[in-house]
Specification:
This protein is an alpha+beta fold and about 260 residues long. The chain has a domain of about 130 residues. Strands 1-2-3-4-5-6-8-7 form an 8-stranded mixed β-sheet, sandwiched between helices. It starts with about 50 loop residues before the first strand and ends in a 9-residue tail after the last helix. About 40% of the residues are buried. The structure holds coenzyme A (COA).
Length: about 260
């Protein structure tokens, strides 16, 4: 959710070594001045991650209108912390300031999601990492994502999350010790993606997230560097209805078994 409060950017240079998950970053500057040094920032040039399923590159100024359009979507407004109503100025600030700044400082990494057969086509979604800046070499980051409605239901975000996750845990990538996923309670579509990536949902935290000035309950899950990157716990089913119902809160849709 942190990420969703203001993602995005410029253009991602195609870094040949980064065409597979786990490839080296374009440049990691580990000799940082304080205060960045305190939290072991890894600054880098934006680069492309791609495979046969997905193409990820830092969004560019050419994507502003498309991002503006997509962020009008009801589900994105409902489940993320992007501004609502979402304006072109919001998208422009995201592209021109938030995203390049986060790459530059090492505070985050954001990619536009496209299919590999249309790497210059319209943006289909966004995926990003927001670094926890705690002063420890055991780094952690939160993953965030959204997709255009027409790109949902095909596993595209699971593929995007997988390539980002593999890179983030790799010693030649960010070398993370841990990743975090959070979602406002009831966001089963987001939870399904996290579950597929191996995240373990560890609970519901009351009032954890602030969305446009209102505190909301959130699920939280983690994935550690040594964890399997596949589902490790049963998907909540009809038998788990009580637990799921309590988590989901009144009036929210029950999960499909
Ligand atoms: C989260 C998101 C990126 C997932 O996209 P996606 O993976 O293409 O897939 P879908 O939206 O179709 O749903 C993902 C899965 O959840 C399942 N799902 C959706 N609603 C569900 C529900 N109420 N109960 C159980 N499962 C549900 C879908 O059936 C699908 O399962 P499958 O992968 O086995 O087919 C997309 O739904 C989205 O952009 N949502 C709005 C923004 C958002 O919520 N971002 C995350 C913020 S934490």
């Amino acid at each position: 959710m942190t990420w969703a409060s203001g993602i995005t950017a410029e253009h991602g240079e195609d870094h040949p070594g980064a065409r597979r998950a786990g490839a080296p970053v374009a440049r990691a500057d580990r000799a940082l001045s304080a205060p960045d040094a305190e939290w072991h920032a890894v600054r880098m040039e934006p680069f492309v991650l791609s495979n046969e399923h997905v193409h990820l590159a830092m969004p560019t100024a050419a994507d502003v209108d498309r991002i503006t359009e997509l962020c009008q979507g009801a589900e994105i407004a409902a489940w993320t912390t992007v501004p609502s109503p979402y304006t072109r100025a919001d998208a422009a600030a995201f592209i021109e300031e938030v995203v390049p700044e986060s790459w530059r400082t090492g505070r985050g990494n954001t990619w536009a999601v496209r299919r590999p057969d249309a790497p210059e086509g319209p943006v289909l979604g966004m995926v990003g990492l927001a670094m926890d800046t705690s002063p420890t070499p055991e780094k952690s980051a939160e993953i965030g994502y959204w997709l255009a409605p027409e790109a949902r239901g095909e596993g595209l975000m699971t593929e995007a999350g997988r390539i980002v996750t593999d890179w983030a845990f790799d010693d030649e990538g960010l070398g993370l010790a841990r990743m975090v996923w959070t979602a406002f309670t009831g966001n089963w579509a987001s939870r399904r993606v996290a579950w597929r990536l191996g995240f373990r949902v560890e609970g519901t935290v009351r009032g954890f997230g602030v969305q446009r000035g209102v505190r909301r309950d959130a699920w939280i899950g983690t994935l550690l560097a040594g964890d399997p990157r596949e589902p490790v716990e049963p998907w909540p089913s009809a038998e788990a209805g009580d637990r799921v119902g309590a988590d989901a809160g009144a009036g929210e849709p029950a999960p499909r078994a």
